[in-house]
Amino acid sequence: MAVNPPLVVLLGATGFVGSAVLRELARRPLRIRAVSRRPAPVPAGARADIEVRAADLTGPGAVAEAVAGADVVIHTVLYSAGATTWRVEDGDTAAERVNVGLVRDLVEALRDARTADGSPVTVLWAGAASQAGPLDKEVLDGTETDRPKGEYDRQKLAAERLLLAADAEGALRGAAIRLPTVFGYGPDSTARDKGVVTFMTRRALSGESITMWHDGTVRRDLLYVEDVARAFAAAVDHPDALAGRHWLLGTGRGEPLGEVFRTVAALVAGHTGKPAVPVVSVPPPAHAEPGDFRSVTIDASAFAAATGWSAVTPLDEALARTVAFVVSGGEEALS
User: Fold this and answer.
1) What does CATH list as the number for 7-185+221-252+298-313?
2) Of residues 84 and 66, which shows the higher confidence score?
3) What gap in Å lies between CA 200 and CA 298, rounded to an integer?
């Protein structure tokens, strides 16, 4: 008797990270249920059997319906208050409903669910390295004591704790994958990048100065979105090794943002034939947070050892792909 391939339910399939994960998993002989508010485009040449489901996951019973029959759930849903930011204001109950409430619903939906071999369902949840809060160390490896300052990070940490508590109870197999600064486009991108690197690319293309809230020496671990997608695919293959804790993703390199932005300006100039726009320091706005001025590099060696994953896309190549996509007008077709 033929055995059905595993069913992977991807929540947030049209989001920036989720759409990249969908493209990566579509190359595999899987069953995929791609769930999002609007229908997700099926990647060209997909090997997977892909069911596209449009749903508002905040509705009563919507999460339970979405994950019914799942072997693996990948949760990449992110609340966004606007077109260019992920920040959350204190007391934002709509954000809490998405960032925390959906995980609560997911835990309840999967508590009594089992896969064909009797195992708990695996849940891979996209968190944020910033959940640790602003620390007095630059290199993070996942052993830090979490002290989040901003509302977004507090909500993400609350959601992660719900997931890992459910794993400890045996209700599911849960792993949290904390992401650093994720950026970028490739030729097949279908979702808008709201991050700072691409935002500055747009500024440069429009002839505006690239602005920084510091002197440019602040470092960030910049991880190309397609490498993130490969990490989630690797996690699907190693649920037992990952379950029960959080893991950090990153390149292991802290890139000075001033240098990154000057590279972006030069790449844009190479496409337009115009002089590179200046990269300048400006006073920070009132909504700036302490973490905006701290350097962050990620030691992802634990995740690499557990899964064999590594970030393989050189920064220059990822920046070049991103700038080419924006300059070509690729963003105009994205929502």
Assistant:
1) 3.40.50.720
2) 66
3) 23
